[in-house]
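Protein: 2-oxoglutarate dehydrogenase, mitochondrial
Species: Sphagnum troendelagicum
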Amino acid sequence: MAWRTVWGLAGSAVVRGGRKLPLQSRLQRSLTGQQEAAAPVPKSVPLSKLTDNFLDGTSSVYLEELQRAWEADPKSVDASWDTFFRNFTGQSTSMAGLSGQTIQESMRLLLLVRAYQVNGHMKAKLDPLGLDDRQPPLELDPALYGFTDADLDREFFLGVWRMSGFLSENRPVQTLRGILQRLEQAYCGTIGYEYMHIQDRDKCNWLRDMIEKQVPGKYGANRRTVILDRLIWATNFENFLAQKWTASKRFGLEGCETLIPGMKELIDKAAEKGVENIVIGMPHRGRLNVLGNVVRKPLRQIFSEFSGGIKPPDESGYTGSGDVKYHLGTSYDRPTLTGKRIHLSLVANPSHLEAVNPVVIGKTRAKQYYSDDKERNKSMAVLLHGDGSFSGQGVVYETLHLSDLPNYTTGGTIHIVVNNQVAFTTDPKSSRSSPYCTDVAKALNAPIFHVNGDDVEAVVHACELAAEWRSHFKSDVVVDIVCYRRFGHNEIDEPSFTQPTMYQVIKNHPPSLDIYIKRLIEEKLLTQEEISTLQDKVFRILNEEFNNSKDYVPSTRDWLAAYWAGFKGPEQLSRIRNTGVKPEILKNVGKLITTIPEKFTPHRGIQRVYDQRKQMIETGEGVDWATAEALAFATLLVEGNHVRLSGQDVERGTFSHRHSVLHDQKTGETYCPLDNVLMNQEEEMFTVSNSSLSEFAVLGFELGYSMENPNSLVCWEAQFGDFANGAQVIFDQFLSSGESKWLRQAGLVCLLPHGYDGQGPEHSSARLERYLQASDDNPYVIPEMDPSLRRQIQEVNWQVVNITTPANYFHVLRRQIHRDFRKPLIVMAPKNLLRHQACRSNLSEFDDVQGHPGFDKQGTRFKRLIKDKSDHGAVEESIRRLILCSGKVYYELDEERKRVGANDVAICRMEQLCPVPYDLVHRELKRYPNAELVWAQEEPMNMGAFSFMAPRLATALNTLGRGKFEDIKYVGRAPAAASATGFGSVHKQEQLELVQKALQLAPIKFP
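Structure follows.
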């Protein structure tokens, strides 16, 4: 059996029989002919296809067998083998002058070459501070392969191996000294390449060619002048800020100024390859420099923000909360060296390092969809990382893991790590378990280019190569800029508290600009006077922009651009729109989404489900939750909107209710009815996709996707509602506050299964209280509720609903699109209501026909509060108790009321919890003037909606003179640490007690 090589940090090992053998053992066996028996090599296979096998220790056996076959009949082997053996037996003139090279020597040399290709990066000069104490790996010592100084000037024949790179030039014969010099130059300079872990040989060969054929000093005088100018801008920008705002935090780029020329080169190369849009995500380190010098945000605007200037309000006074300057994003068109223009957008993000990664990827994917960029050529993502966060934050891997999934790929992301070798105050030895901070990317077969941050030309080349790779292979690539942080975590921090040795070196270390200037002067490319002229020009512009910043006033709000033109902010009144659909359209799309092609063989159980759905549409009665959802999606598609649903197992649905993608039981083929509601429906117009087992990254992805274009319904569904805990950063930092901090609207819908069914604490509660607690409306002020003036939802940060009817679900989904502003929507989705016989709607509740059940004086739309089903009159003085509740507990309350005949109890459903529909609450309080008010919920008192609703209900009571906070009765579970019991019998008893207490059939007491 052939031996499999496993390359590690300190060298190589061989796996054989489940145990590792050191490289020395492997070489001894290989070079002394002690290989194990191997399966015969097919004689028709070209030598180039077998090189990897030979280098894994099986070469001699193969060569001997093939040589015997060749001697018997040269035509019995591939032509490449014929050439090989002719050379070694003297039947070819190409070996003339070689001093007795043997097959074994050839193999040793190839092993040495492979060692450089695999582990040369470990000898590369990567650390600008010179603190790296790694020893060169043993495999790079020629003596290990039997070579001595006497062999250095011997010539060796390598051409027939077609190893690519310089070894496949028209110089098949080279001295060992020359070969080693080229290997050192290619693999052990200021760039260290990791790529031999990649499984695809074509990708490896492409990179070998790019690396080994690289000509030293590839940049001419003009290009190097451009690189210098860009480095001057990067350096002097930081110096200027430091001079003007000495006590301000800016998280400057000092120590990695070469990032700016590198990014600019990357952008130029990407534009040359056809990229038109680049979406950028990055942490705070160097953000202002990237904003000013790469994205081209006006310097006067940056300086205005430093001077304490805030974004002025528009005509009606709305500004939002704002954010610190090194969290802000922007977007601009900028020219490239070739004269093309490219659109750059830097996504705003919080201090949660790496949280922005999936948001950027989702936004990029949306750009590709809306520009019909199926080849992923026009839009791409660039993510900047810190070394500590790239190795330490789980969302990095979650995002990388999306890179090649069909409905999430963006055709490759370029990752740039600003590796300043310290995470806040933590040394690498304490912040990661891997040799490099980038090792996580190797799991996804991404090539990694480690580059010394002091060598600006090397940084530029690595970024250029990354852009070439992404264009060629449409897959991720990592550039790891090994640099340093000249100051502390921020400019007023003292780094010597924790890294005294490092910062003693940094204190005496010249900036990369000084190093490059010295190099250019020594090479006589530029004079000191010419360089001073360039620097003076930069400082002059910086000063001009600083002076102009004092009077800077932005002209428009950032987010009102592109597809968002015409959409309103919280300060602009947006009229309320109906969401009903014409009956004939409902019937038509209903038929389409319940029809399975005749030649398709679905599972028998799913066939029954679709037959039932078809009957619902035909009779117009008993429409269930899944059918209502499909009708909402279908009608939005018919109206020209894009619909996307993603999350774990959403195609079938966690509770086996959706079945949006059908699987042929004979062929395995799939069919999605919602792909066929329009003639020649555009590909991906409806997208439903089972995601990877990720919440953080996938929710972030869908948020980014929803931000690109408002004319799309983008939904993320948690497998169970509590699983959203894993994505809490996205909820807290982006969804709930993004519009306030960054003036960025998003209409993302989050479906969180919720409801107490005896399934234990992890599968009961979606933590409704967390979303309500993050709502920003004032519990003591009732806003304007007149329908013609109401902008209550526009002024709140998001909406939270707990819906009890399929029709209401239909309307709340359509409401997301049918208005001219966007707000995130949190839906406490049902579980047992998906099949509950009472949780059904008639098709007439979906249409826009006046007089039908869903139509009121305003039209057909989402019902924020559903009044008691008994159809009480305008005033019902005999009702002794008014129960307000939300979600599936309503059905249990109503069933118990019916069972005991409690006709003096009214039950109203709060379908929309945030913002509170005060107008409808007032209506019901007036309807039942003598009723005591009860809030009933399934959740414990410290969870659920009670703590949110109580002060708001008290405000509603107080304005009507009906009472105060103490007059609100609470019915629900007692305060608890766990969200639910794990014992079925206890759950059943608790549920019965709270229902009876709500109807005042049992005394209120808690266990």
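Remarks: The longest strand covers residues 932-940.
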